[in-house]
Amino acid sequence: MTKQFQSSPARLFTAFGTVLFVDPFTGELRHGAIEDSPVNVFLDADWAPTDGYRRSQLIFAADGLQQSIHCFAAMCHTSPTSPSKDRPDTGTTLELIPLERGLLALRSGGHFLSAIPDGRMMHQASVCSIWELFIASENWCTDTPGVAINDAWRRDNAFNKSHVVSYIVHPLTRMKSNRQPVARKILIYGYPKWSHGRVYYDLSRHLHDRGYLVDILDWQQDHALYAQDLFPYYDFVISALDGIATLVDRYKVPFDKIIAISHHEFDIRMLIEQKGIEVFEKFANYGVVSEYVYCASLMRGVPRAPMVASLGINFDEFYAEIPKTLKTVGYASSMSVKTFGVEWKRGELAEAAAADAGLAFKIAGSTGNQMSFHDMPNFYRSVDAVVTSSISEAAQLPVMEAAAAGRLVIGTPVGHFPLKAYQGAGIIAPIEAAKFRAFATATLSYYRDAPNEFVKKCRSIQEAAQVFDWKHQIKDWTELIDAA
Q: Which of helix, strand or coil describes residue 285?
C-alpha cells in the first residue's frame, strides 16, 4: 500500500520517553530508545474531523514504500498475520484525541493504543491512563482548532483524568521530539507540587492552547548530565528567584535566557544576597505575581520595575454547590513557616478561631505532608469556609480557589487579598494576632447562626470569583514572555 501524507508526518513518543518504530524483520510495531530506534513510523490524519476527532493512521515508511499498520489486541503489525473478515486489508483507523499540554491518545472501536513497558504496542485498553499517552513531533496533532469538541475527553469516563493531568512530560523527551510550536518554547524550572506546581501546571496548559510549548523541569532533581543539550532547545527558562543561582552557576544558563518571577518578597531578598541587586537588569524579563510584590521589589531597591503577571484559577474546576450551613472551617496552607526568623503563616490562629466558634477545623496539607493540588477542589467541597492568617503573602491561591467553590473566605490584608476582597471575594480580618482571632471568631459565629445570610454571602463571593479565571489573567503571561 502506498499512501500520501495529508500533512507533515508526525513521529510519536510515549510516556516512557521512547519512540514508536516497526521492527523491519518482524513487521511488529514497538517502542524503544529514541537514539537506537529506526525512524520508520509516522502518524497521518485526515483534516476533516469525525464526531469531533480526526481520523488517523499509523504508517510504516521505509525504502520508499509505505504500509498502513494494523492494530490488534495483543499486537500491532504492518500486515494481518492471518487475514479474515475480522482483520481488514486496510490499516486501523484511529481517533486522534488531543488532550492537554500537547498530549494525545489514539482510539479505535472503544480501545486505546497502549505502550507496554516491555516495548510492545497493544490495542485493548478500555481506559486511557499513562501507558496510553503520547506526544507528537508536529503541531497539527494537537494544535489545530476544532479537532476536538471543547475538551470533550474531560467528560468521557474512558479517560482516567487524574492520571492524565498528573502526568508531566519530561523536557528531555520533548526536546528529542524536536517539536517547533507556533509561539515560543518555554521551560519552567521549579517545584512541580503544592501551590507552585498548581501555577506551573495551569500555565503549561493554558499557554499551550495559545500556541506556546511549555514544559516543567523539577528543580529538586539533578539535570547536569543533559543540561547542555536540553536548555538550548527552549527559547526561555521561567524560574522563581530562588532557582536562579542553580540555573546560572550549575547549569550555565545565560541570564538573558531567563524570565525571572518573584513569588514573594522573601525571594527578592534572597536573590539580592546571592547575586547582588544589579542581577535584575540582566534577565530577559522580570515579573512578579501581584501588585504587592511589585511594590516590595521597588522598596527593596531593585531599579528595574517588574511586569505584573497575575495568577489565575480554573473557575469551572473549583466551582461547587453553595453549602447550606457553616460547620467546618478549612485551612489550605502550611500551619507554620519561619523565614528569616519570622513566623508568618500563624495557622494556630485560624484553628483557635474555629474552635472558639464551635466549628470543626480541617487542614488540606503542609509543606511536609502535601495534598496534590489536583485534589484541592474536593478539599474545598469538604469544608464550608476557608480562613488564612498569614502576615505576609504575595498571591495566595486558596482565597481565589475557595471563593470559586462558593465558600466563606476570611483573610488578613496581605498580598493580593485586599484587592480580591474589594472585588467581593472575601472578608478582610485585622492583622494583629489578638484582633484577628476575635474578628474571625465573631464572623464565623455570626454566619454559623445565620444560615440564610451565610448562603447569601457565599453566593456573592462565588459570583465575584469568576473574574479570577485564567482566561482573564493569561494575557499578563503572554505579554511577559513576548516582551522578553
A: strand
The alpha carbon torsion through 59, 61, 67, 72 (nearest 10 deg) reads -50
CATH 1.50.10.10 is right for the domain spanning 12-161: no
Residue 284 backbone class (left: φ over 0; alpha: ψ -120 to 50; beta: rest): alpha
194-208 and 470-482 helices, crossing angle to 10°: 80
Q: How much is the mean pLDDT over the chain?
A: 93
* pLDDT (average), residues 434-460: 98
Residue 481 to residue 204: CA distance in whole angstroms: 13
What are the pLDDT digits (tens) for 86-129? 544 578 999 999 999 999 999 999 999 999 999 999 999 999 99
Which pLDDT belongs to residue 208?
95
- Are the C-beta atoms of residues 162 and 203 closer than 8 Å to each other? no
Task: Report if pTM > 0.90.
Answer: yes
The pLDDT-based confidence of 479 (bands split at 50, 70, 90) is very high
**Per-residue cell: 184:** 515560543
d(CA 268, CA 433): 26
Same fold, 181-312+470-482 and 315-468: yes
Do 418 and 431 meet the contact criterion of CB atoms below 8 Å apart?
no
Angle at 399 between CA 394 and CA 402, to 5 degrees: 155
Please tell me the predicted confidence (pLDDT) of residue 146. 46
Cell 523527551 sits on residue: 173
CATH code for the part of the protein at 315-468? 3.40.50.2000
Beta bridge partners of 29: 22
Give the model's pLDDT for residue 340: 75
- CA-to-CA distance for 164 and 383, rounded, in angstroms? 27
Architecture of the domain defined by 181-312+470-482: 3-Layer(aba) Sandwich (3.40)
